[in-house]
Specification:
single chain; about 230 residues; alpha/beta; 4-stranded parallel β-sheet; two-stranded antiparallel ribbon; 6 strands; about 10% strand; globular
Amino acid sequence: MFVNNFCVIIIGMVNIGNDWDEILAGEFDKEYYLQLRRFLIEEYRTQTVYPDMYDIFNALKFTPYSKVKAVILGQDPYHQPGEAHGLCFSVKKGVRVPPSLRNIYIELRDDTGIMPPGHGCLEDWARNGVLLLNTALTVRRSQPNSHRGKGWETFTDHVIEHLNRRKEPMVFILWGNNARAKKELITNPSHLVLEGAHPSPFAAHKGFFGGRYFTRANAFLKEPIDWRISE
């Protein structure tokens, strides 16, 4: 039963529930994804993997293709219990705000004057047009990058390529080397790329703080993003 249910979620019957279904038509039947599917079935069956299988595609579910105003790229999901829920840098309410997100909140406050909430859930951003996409969409517990090189990078590259082809201008916010490596996929001059160091405590003081990503994004966009997050 587990494998059958998982196949429905992960393979050809993936249902995002918005215009991504048409944009990604046929993607889940490609050989690289079929190999990824087989790997994930075994991983979820034998290991503890995050996020919950029903949350894997939340970034696409929360932010339809036609509504994307900005893309924030992360590495892979948080790898401790209760944290990951399919949106990069975001954690569920009630979970301690991770250090990287605390630094994002500091930059948000300093850049816009918006005071951060007492939680780390970024669903408001996702609903307001910010695609919170990780490079890899799953991870094994306590093993960051454990699902790297299994096929997710190909999938998320294709997502970025579809967005790059869109006529409506959008902003790509690339924090850290993994995200900045995707810059070569963004060739459409209609879009804006904002780069910075990763917001982790190890790198934030080396080129993340002071980047003014939020106000610069809104200055570029015809319809500014509401960066406020409700409690």
